[in-house]
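INFO batch 0412 | record 1 of 1 | parsing
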Amino acid sequence: QVQLAESGGGLVQPGDSLRLSCGSSGPLNSYSMAWFRQAPGKEREFVAAIRNGGHTYYQDAVKGRFTISRDNGRNTVYLQMNNLKVEDTAVYSCAAGRPILSAIRDANMYYYWGPGTQVTVSS
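INFO prediction complete | emitting tokens
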């Protein structure tokens, strides 16, 4: 069983940066890790993923602004978010799973989820 917990959310202004962390109670090296987000009144959406080999995948809206990374030695995954926009406001959750490549953006392919951390971007 893997338990995940996110941290690093907060209230920032447009253009600011935040780094989210996702810590695990156990090893993550055999899992693909992903970040999803859900804004009020909207469906959960894929943000970014990193496979255990290090390949990364992003939603088009965050490419060039967000960077996902992992430190398997620390059982931690990060999401560096730069140039934040109001539309990035959401609850961000990390997830662990073993999806096939074609399904890496599919939330149903992930087994373990953290409770989420709120990111609010507002002027």
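INFO post-check: The longest strand covers residues 90-97.
INFO record closed
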